[in-house]
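Board notes (copied after class):
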Amino acid sequence: MKVFQMHVNRIHGFFGNDPPPPEQTVPETALEERQHLLSHHVRLVCQKLTHGLFVYGSRGGLGKTKIILRVLRQERIRPVLLNGHCTPLSLYTNLYNNSDKVIFLDDCDSLYRNLPALGILRSALWGDSNRGRLVTYNSSQLEIPNSFNFTGQIIFTANNLPSKNHAFNAVLSRVDVFELDASNDDVIEMMYQLADDGFESMSPSQCRMVVHFIADNSASRELSLRILEPSYRKYLYSQQAGIDWRELVMTQLDQFGTQQPSKVDTTVDDLDCLKQVLDDHGTVKEQIEAWCQLTKKSRATFFRLKKSLSTSND
């Protein structure tokens, strides 16, 4: 997602020799913290400190594939990418032809239920990091040797963690396992931060207006970041077509995600709590600590509502 990369560039800009004062620093959302932790797990693979990494999360659109590919690119590693349907023969052939490379199996869910394929993965992921791991496979269609030593690494992703699958669990025992998941509140928090960058000809305030509409009308839907850029584009289109952008975005929300229990809008209560915290505590650090303890919400929410409160008082 283009808007996601723009936000990453902005965050990286804060790590110079002269960091901004605490009140100007944009805090990480809970989702960003998980994404950055995933980046470190990918770097462990890049540095050959682990044989592989399995990343899963039932909520799509949180950036699993984008983060993995971005970190590999930063580490100057060109992975062998396999996605969708992949047979055991195809898996074995690709491992044989790229025995010292990083193999990226992106959402090859059917492969994780295939016993021969899981046997290949178990062999490729078991053994000393600095030595070849013997992989064998027998097939009448095989046109290459039926065994070889694999010295590369494997990263694989899925939406769900396959349960009650002993063969797959044996594969997981050989790699790092990371769950990238988030609540609707986490996703919305990150949308608000992304909105601060604007989008094409849209100003940050226009972007925040769209995010606010999504937040107000998605209580029964499971959100992902994938909905943000299409919503911005519907807003831009509506300005040219002379129609209400809300109707276009609402149509998208009606068809998006799975049903969730309705949630109560706590914005007014949160603002009242924020005002009390600001009155009771002098330093920003004390205010944040009191806010998080009272509301069980993030630093990012604190700063967003504080900014909103400041704007409304101007």
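Comment from the instructor: Residues 113 and 168 are 8 Å apart (CA to CA). The mean pLDDT is 80.
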